[in-house]
């Protein structure tokens, strides 16, 4: 099982950060893939929507994403599952309970070594391929402020920071040094 983790420095007025991913407004997650049979990298990034369901070859069920390797013909599939975790501001006291729950969930998944500063955002059940890199430019994120206000945003291509202004509180809102990593778990 693979997991997508994210870590960033959040301004003190951000309570938590998470992908905007509902059935009404599904997120498009973009990944770089490698075939596990021939180890060739797919020539273009692929977009995966976790609410879509595609039939797998041979009637073996459904997956969020299905393809055949261009190089060796190997069948590849990925099922995405959103975890209960968000990227929490560790300085915000009201996040303590959610952070403790995240630690318990990680222990069950064999992700004990993932530091609490990182959020485990997605679970990727990959068959025949491996996601090697996440590209966030196509994914909309939500920054929930300590005032309960929510602000939607996207990272620009190649950027790992976002700045905005909260008119109500009259203060800057920022996410900097955002990095994502695909890691292996149980």
Automatic annotation (TrEMBL):
Zinc is among the record's keywords: yes
Family to which this protein belongs: Belongs to the UPF0587 family.
One GO MF term attached to the UniProt entry: zinc ion binding
Protein name: UPF0587 protein YCR090C
Superkingdom field: Eukaryota
PANTHER family xref list: CXXC MOTIF CONTAINING ZINC BINDING PROTEIN
SUPFAM superfamilies assigned: MAL13P1.257-like
Keyword Zinc: yes
Cited InterPro entries: CXXC_Zn-binding_euk
Keyword annotations from UniProtKB, A to Z: Metal-binding, Zinc
